[in-house]
Amino acid sequence: MDQTRIEFDAPTTVAVGARSRHERPAATVTTTTDPMDMLAAIETFGSALKTTDPERSYPTLRGHPPALELGDSLDIPETITRPETGITLELPPTLSAAFVAAPLAYYLGASLEPAPTPRLTTDDGFEYSLSGPDGYERTVEQTLKQLFFFDCVTRTEGYYELDLHERREIEPSSISTSPRCTTVRSPNRWRRISTFPTNWSRTTFPSGG
């Protein structure tokens, strides 16, 4: 068995920290099948994020989102608090639109609002259509993949400075790998990511996120 031994010359206070995957929900949200209630319920998913920085691409920094349970009325426990990310997903008030956007809403910690056409907006005025030429479902899927891809690349300037092959491939063409990009607010970081060609995240996807 591998072991690590740490010795000090004198008595020393040591703080030990650890984190693990959260494979079970910490809370349950009751909702009806009404699309507006479902949007409000899915909006709570971002409460499980441990950070909204690129390090959220580490599985241990993404907790399990709240469980959903059907009931007679919407009931969100007071213990659930969603991060203020400044990102909103505007979606048609239908169950199908809500379910498609749920993974993206969770990863972004986004708020959800009803709207005639789906789009991503930020509180600093940025807008990004989610009804691309490949359709709503495919656009939402690709949006999440691209965001996750760039988070994995950018986090090499964060807690752990790792030599990532994908960063070396993309660095000549993107400013999103700069150290500054790990600390800017999520809306501004998304503005940079969304303008980069999608073929990178389609053909060069990091493994072991």
Q: Estimate the global geometry from the Cα principal axes.
A: globular
Give the CA-CA distance, first to last residue: 27 Å
Q: Residue share in helices?
A: 25-40%
How are strands sequenced across the largest beta sheet?
4-3-5-6
Number of helices: 6
**Helix/strand-derived class?**
alpha/beta
Described by strand count, sense and barrel closure, the largest sheet is: 4 strands, mixed
How many distinct beta strands? 6
Using only CA atoms, what is the Rg?
19 Å
Please tell me about this protein's structure.
- The chain has 209 residues and is α/β, with parallel strands linked by helices.
- It contains six helices and six strands; from the N terminus they run E-H-E-E-H-E-E-E-H-H-H-H.
- Helix 1 runs parallel beside helix 2 and helix 2 runs parallel beside helix 3.
Short précis:
29% of the residues lie in helices and 11% in strands.
Topology overview:
Elements (H helix, E strand, L loop, with lengths): L27 E4 L3 H8 L24 E4 L16 E5 L3 H14 L2 E4 L4 E4 L4 E3 L6 H19 L10 H6 L15 H9 L4 H5 L6
Parallel strand pairs: 1-2, 3-4
Antiparallel strand pairs: 3-5, 5-6
